[in-house]
Write the structure tokens for this entry.
Amino acid sequence: MAKPGYTNQGFWFRLIFMLFYWCLLNVAITVFGILVIVVSVVKLASSYEPITISGWLRNMGVFIRQIFQFLSYDSEEKPFPFQPWPKVKEGE
């Protein structure tokens, strides 16, 4: 007879990582929202294109997507800090 899933030690380790990434996701979404507001205010107030902040937004979006993939069991790879920070090239 096969053992139930809750006896698997890997399940409990993944659950701990999922709780960690759930907390990190809340922080990342807050930072993402703040960056969206900053970019919107800068674009509204001037004709300046905030390229650096827009790059941070793209990278943060990829990071949030990686967390969602891990939390939904779509990926077994743990995002940052266990992987390098995602880098999105200009124009992607």
Observations:
- The longest helix spans residues 9-45.
- The CA atoms of residues 39 and 45 lie 10 Å apart.
- The radius of gyration is 18 Å.
